[in-house]
Amino acid sequence: MADLGTQGAAVQIRFRDDDLVDHAVVSMEDFAEQSNANAVRIEPGEDARALIPHLDQIALVEVNFPVFGDGRGYSAARILREAGFAGELRAVGDVLVDQLAIMRRCGFDAFAPDTPLDAADVETALATWPYDYQAAADDAVPIWNLRHG
To answer: What is the pTM of this model?
Structure first.
């Protein structure tokens, strides 16, 4: 399950067992100009597909959610996971507890919300719907496949 609490500067929730990536994160523009960067931040409107040729050198991708209603970061996460990105995918910014389950399905495995989330609320939100109805970037088996194999 998730490790809830403060890890590093602002990471509150993390679903990974490897070491926390806590070094400098560069912008997409700066990443293109640096050969040694391995942590990058995607802002709304930036194309995550530009990172695909470099996935083997990236340990962390932060996806910024400046407001909770901006859903472009969900697509960025799914694009990266479907392209084979296995590093840490961290949602940062205006991340709300009721978004966590869907963000997990899109491939996020770490969260650094602007406002800390209550651990009990997080556990409840992630346990509310034990089955999923469609395939996604995670490994969950859709309920129709469980029923009809």
So the answer is: 0.84
**What 3-state class would DSSP assign to 142?**
strand
Q: Which of 22-26, 103-107, 131-135 ranks highest by mean pLDDT?
A: 103-107
Residue 5 region by backbone torsions, left for phi larger than 0, else alpha for psi between -120 and 50, else beta: left
> In 33-132, at which residue ranges do the beta strands (DSSP E only) sit?
39-42, 60-65, 88-93, 110-113
Tokens of 106: 């899109």
Sketch the domain layout of the chain as residue ranges.
Answer: 3-148
Phi, psi of 148 (to 5 degrees): -115, 0
Query: Which of 31-40, 85-94, 132-141 is least confident?
Result: 132-141
CB under 8 Å, gap of 24 or more: what pairs does 24-30 form?
Answer: 25/60, 25/62
Rounded CA gap, 14 and 34, in Å?
A: 27
The CATH topology of domain 3-148 is Rossmann fold (3.40.50)
Q: Could you give the strand order of the β-sheet that contains 26-27, starting from the edge strand earlier in sequence?
A: 3-7, 11-14, 110-113, 88-93, 60-65, 39-42, 26-27
The b/e string for 34-53 (b: 16+ C-beta within 10 A; e otherwise) is eeebbbbbbbeebebeebee
17's CB contacts (< 8 A; 6+ apart) are none
